[in-house]
Design brief:
- The protein has 9 helices and 10 strands.
- By secondary structure, the chain is of the alpha/beta class.
- Helix 6 links the parallel strand 8 and strand 9.
- Helix 1 crosses helix 9 (267-279).
- The termini are far apart.
Length: 284
């Protein structure tokens, strides 16, 4: 398959030093010389789905800083060497916190789906990917952000509670707080009870139609199933409550945004725009 190039973005694969399947990295570098101290940087997940959108948002808005409030920055998208927008099997393992569980295959002939590899994925980002990026482009280690959506949002929260010094801006869009019994809620409560300080500020985002039917979903064949899923996950409520929890963390701050008109899938590109503004604001 022929792939269209993404403006100002290089793509390369990197495998873990200990062996295993590689990740595909989408590295966006701003034009011109880096500022003293290096560029701010945002790592984002599900890059196969949104790398082009990320590059377009940055190159259009950062070029007009007094109109947008956004400055130039490096963006590091983490994806997989696949043609589609997602690799569901690897994504499930990488982004879900331990201990994890086993689930039936997505397709009849597919592999078993496992969760629980978030700590392995975090170790790859911290110990291998970040040094690789620092060798390729000057970055400011004090201004590093991370964005994830759904399972990715869950990973962002897990990382915050596991390694709060890793980033200074934390963006969790539609985080799967409820996943596997809501273990991340317990992690949040333990983190707060321990009185640990976190680095920077968090932004939690969710769509209006993640806990209620969108107009085009009313009367659909899967309406009852969808409503039951809303009641089980309560993504809007859980995202707001998590933001309220994070606002109590010492030396930290948290913002909550409810995006009107967005569903669980459509919230991703809208969240990317907010995340770039949050990560690369002229007044951090």
């Amino acid at each position: 398959m022929t792939h269209a190039s993404i403006p100002d973005t290089v793509t390369f694969d990197i495998a873990p030093a200990a062996g295993g399947e590689p990740w595909r990295i989408f590295l966006y570098r701003p034009p011109g010389e880096a500022p003293e101290g290096g560029w701010p940087v945002m790592y984002y997940l599900d890059a196969n789905a949104v790398a082009g959108t990320a590059a377009d948002i940055m190159r259009v808005q950062a070029a007009w800083p007094l109109a947008t409030g956004i400055g130039w920055g490096v963006m590091v998208g983490i994806g997989y060497p696949v043609d589609g927008a997602y690799d569901g099997v690897r994504r499930s393992w990488d982004l879900a916190p331990p201990p994890g569980q086993a689930y039936p295959p997505f397709t009849p002939d597919g592999p078993e789906v496992r969760t629980g590899g978030a700590d392995h994925f975090l170790a790859f980002i911290e110990d291998e990917l970040k040094p690789e990026i620092a060798c390729r482009v000057p970055v400011d280690p004090a201004r590093q952000a991370i964005l994830g959506h759904s399972f990715g949002g869950l990973f962002v929260l897990h990382t915050l509670f596991r390694k709060p010094e890793a980033f200074s801006r934390w963006i969790a869009a539609s985080p799967a707080v409820w996943w596997e019994g809501g273990g991340v809620v317990k992690a949040a409560e333990e983190f707060i009870a321990a009185g640990r300080a976190a680095n920077g500020r968090a932004l939690l985002i969710v769509g209006e139609y993640e806990q209620a039917l969108a107009p085009f979903q009313v009367g659909a064949e899967d309406e009852a199933k969808r409503v039951a899923a809303f009641e089980d996950s309560r993504i809007v409520d859980n995202t707001r409550i998590m933001a309220e929890r994070l606002a109590t963390v010492k030396e930290f701050g948290a913002d909550y945004v409810l995006l009107p008109g967005e569903t669980h899938m459509s919230v991703l590109p809208a969240s990317l725009n907010l995340a770039i503004r949050f990560a690369f604001s002229l007044k951090p």
